[in-house]
Amino acid sequence: MNGRERPDDQLGKARTLRWLLLLMQPGIGLKRWLLLAMAGVLLLAGGFALVLSVPLSDVVLQAARTLTLSGKLPPVWRGVIVLAIGIAFVAIGAYNLHQRFLFGAMYRQVRPGTGALEGLSTYRSRRRGPKIVAIGGGTGLSTLLRGLKEHTENITAIVTVADDGGSSGRLRKEFGIQPPGDARQCLIALSDSEPLMEELMSFRFETGQTLEGHSMGNLLLAALTQRYGNLHEALQAAARLLAVKGRVVPSTLATGLVLRAETVGGHLLEGESMIGESPDRIARIWLDPKAAPLNAAVADSLREADAVVIGPGSLYTSVLPNMLVAGMREALNRSGAPKVFVCNVATQHGETDGLDAGGHLREFERHSGVSVTHLLLNARPIAIPVQFQQQAILPEPPAGFAGEVLVRDVVSREMPSRHDPKLLAEAVLEIARGPRTRNGRPQAALRA
């Protein structure tokens, strides 16, 4: 080709350079074992030299004498000692190199066609990602988690346990356990085998007197709950089983929680399913019993968080039930992390009809007693067909809000009433990775 490099040669050189750069990254767990194996090879050579009485340089000879008890053992035995140490080093280094390469090859979420080094690099990046606590439930929370898991494994998803509808409600009544539905969706979103796992965990039985309508994932969590005693432990066991990146935590360990509400017209509503279809605006909402204590794991996560994300999700039936658990308000207000309220991109029929961005935020702060530091709004509202009875929420910051307002394009192109996982995660990480204070917190946390 007239002295020019062929495209294949150029591609090979670029690939080799990329691999070398990946190999030099700190924290991927390869170089230490490679160096140990190389040291073992050198020791093997030295051991053979001693056994065979091959002349060595003064430096190597003096080191070998010191290591092998010179003057106390004959050269052959000293050589055997060096050989044994060398074999051990080579074996340990080779075994751990094999384990790291195997882990890198199996680590998911790497682009098709890439190898073990890319997998280890991705793992390193996600392992060192920011600690994010996400509070909510339903489709909104699982959407956020799908985007965040591409950047960090340090995710704690906090879900409500007041659900009383569908399969979750039936399992709750029959077995006296916490409803697993919202937690199941979060496990699917955080799983590294998401497409297959979603198909399995979301599978619903269509026949059978007792199985009809139940999802496979809900049944699995119900079984694990009975085995381990509560939903929290069941979720940790399921996370190990499903290769979940991050963890899912119920806001409380109390069972039998009932969400209650009163409308502006004086109607009393009981249960998430009824409140979600309210014919009137919600005036107030509460949990029964009110003294249901906060899960200790939630308080620990909030204490260590780099950012707390509230929403998106159904305002009254997914987001606020978590806030009404006794101790949640205090734990959130004590947290030094920025608190980001993610406003829904559209109203929800029967629950937030007519509420704008300011209305969503006011209702949240009025019921929760928590002041947020950041408000995230969608910059590109898309008109929603009339038959869905929803309205796109305009990016109009509420008057008097003392925090920071971020207006970003976060809406899904395919479903204009929902967020896009990738775009939403990038907006959240912009806050979580913001300028830091001396204690390591994001600078915006000073406004909390």
Radius of gyration: 28 Å
In the sheet with the most strands, the strands line up as 3-2-1-7-8-9-10
The helical percent reads: 40-55%
The counted number of beta strands is: 10
Please, what is the average pLDDT? 81
C-alpha termini separation: 65 Å
Number of domains: 2
Shape: elongated
Percent strand: 5-15%
- Which stretches are poorly predicted, pLDDT < 50 over at least 5 residues? 436-448
Nutshell version of this structure?
With 448 residues, the protein is α/β, with parallel strands linked by helices. It has helices spanning 7-24, 31-51, 58-67, 75-106, 116-127, 138-148, 166-175, 181-190, 194-201, 216-228, 231-241, 272-275, 296-304, 315-323, 328-334, 357-368, 421-432; strands spanning 132-136, 155-159, 247-250, 258-263, 268-270, 282-288, 307-310, 339-342, 374-378, 404-408.
Describe the structure.
This protein is of the alpha/beta class and about 450 residues long. The chain folds into 2 domains: about 25-100 and about 115-125, no CATH class; about 130-160 and about 250-445, 3-Layer(aba) Sandwich (Rossmann fold), CATH 3.40.50. The chain is about 45% helix and about 10% strand. The protein is built from 17 helices and 10 strands. Strands 3-2-1-7-8-9-10 form a 7-stranded parallel β-sheet, with helices on both faces. Strand 8 (about 340), helix 16 and strand 9 (about 375-380) form a beta-alpha-beta unit. Helix 8 (about 180-190) packs antiparallel against helix 9 (about 195-200) and helix 13 (about 295-305) runs parallel beside helix 15 (about 330-335). The protein is elongated.
